[in-house]
Each structure stands twice: as structure tokens, then as C-alpha cells.
Design brief:
single chain; 8 helices; 209 residues
Length: 209
């Protein structure tokens, strides 16, 4: 099956946390198959670039960054095409992909934010069958934004797999039109709701509504 991990995004350490947790859970073979989808801004910092280089990754343009030059606009367009091709090829080869649908690390409140609805379009383009939601808690305390790493621990919870096509069908049956914003947002809500449920209530943010 074509499987995508969908992870909570706390810190640049998250991809490492996912891989290490798979290994610690006894799934060493799966840990070597995961390709993480990272924004290219991760490659700019001293610490963050080290984490990026240590992982198998697919590069994308950061979803909340506005390109300021013609070169950046061209790079954003190129990465939009190549990231889809790379993710599709990875699934074709039996690999896994891991994406962070919130699009950026959480803020000082450490609460979940609204997922990007266009992630549904991405999943459709690359042909995902199943989603594995992943709740991450504590990596921000080890690698806080703009600061040096600290000692600490984190928790990673792998939730029950979700049949992606079944979730989409549910919302079509409710009368929501495919490819409309409300439809995409409803699908992403159902996909990430298990992540929120695995976190303390004060961390759920958008999913407390």
C-alpha cells in the first residue's frame, strides 16, 4: 500500500524523533524507508541544517514564505513540481513519506494549528492509500526555536492507520464538493484529529474547537 505519515510539527528535531521512535519500537526496516518532506528554510540554520542532512528528505518551498525575487519564484515553482514527482516515485518504490501539514513549527503556545487543506491535493497527486497520524510531544523543549539544543525527552505516538479513500468518501457523502476548501479542510481535520487526541488538551489548539 501507498502510505504517508502525517506528523505534528514542533521542532526541527521532529523527523529524527519519528525515525528513532520507529527503531525503538522494533521497526528498523520502516525507519530506513521514510522520506521526510522539508521546507528548504531548514537548510539555512547551523543546527537545523545538520538535522536536515541526516535525514532522507524531499525539498519543498515553505508554504508560508512569499518569494521575493524572480529566482525565488522560479525555485518555488520548480520545487512544487519536483516534490510531487519525488513523493510519487518514493511511493512507487514501496517507500514511505512523512509530511507536516501544519506547514510550520508551532509557536510559543505549543498548540496545534490549522492544517493546510491543500495537503489533500498533494495526497491525491501522489496516490496515497493510507495515512499514519503521528503525535509528537516534547521536541520543542529539546530544540527550541532560535536557541541551542537542550537535554530532554520527547514522546511519539503512532496512531491507528486511516484509510484515506474512506475518509474522503465520508465527506463527499455529507454533500461537500471535492476540491472545495471546506471539503479539503474537513478531510484534513479527520486525518489530524487522532494526533490532537493523543496530546494533552491544552496542546490541541485548533482541534479544541
Amino acid at each position: 500500500k501507498r502510505v504517508a505519515l502525517v506528523s505534528k510539527h514542533e521542532a526541527h528535531l521532529d523527523a529524527v524523533a519519528v525515525d528513532q521512535s520507529l527503531e525503538q519500537a522494533g521497526y528498523d526496516d520502516l525507519a530506513t524507508l521514510v522520506f521526510h518532506i522539508f521546507g528548504i528554510r531548514l537548510e539555512e540554520g547551523i543546527v537545523s541544517s545538520w538535522f536536515a542532512d541526516s535525514q532522507s528528505r524531499i525539498r519543498i518551498w515553505p508554504p508560508f514564505d512569499v518569494p521575493e525575487t524572480d529566482d525565488e519564484k522560479a525555485l518555488k515553482e520548480l520545487l512544487g513540481e519536483t516534490s510531487v514527482e519525488a513523493a510519487r516515485d518514493a511511493l512507487d518504490m514501496g517507500l514511505l513519506i512523512n509530511i507536516f501539514p501544519e506547514g510550520t513549527r508551532e509557536g510559543k503556545t505549543q498548540e496545534m494549528t490549522k492544517p493546510i487543506g491543500a495537503t489533500v491535493n498533494f495526497f491525491d497527486e501522489i496516490g496515497v492509500d493510507y495515512i499514519l497520524p503521528v503525535a509528537i510531544d516534547g521536541t520543542q523543549n529539546i530544540l527550541p526555536r532560535g536557541k541551542w539544543p537542550r537535554c530532554g525527552s520527547y514522546d511519539v505516538t503512532f496512531c491507528e492507520p486511516i484509510d484515506y479513500h474512506a475518509v474522503k468518501d465520508t465527506h463527499v457523502d455529507l454533500g461537500l464538493q471535492q476540491f472545495k476548501r471546506e471539503y479539503r479542510q474537513a478531510v484534513m481535520y479527520d486525518i489530524m484529529r487522532p494526533i490532537a487526541d493523543a496530546l494533552p488538551k491544552y496542546r490541541r489548539g485548533y482541534f479544541n474547537k
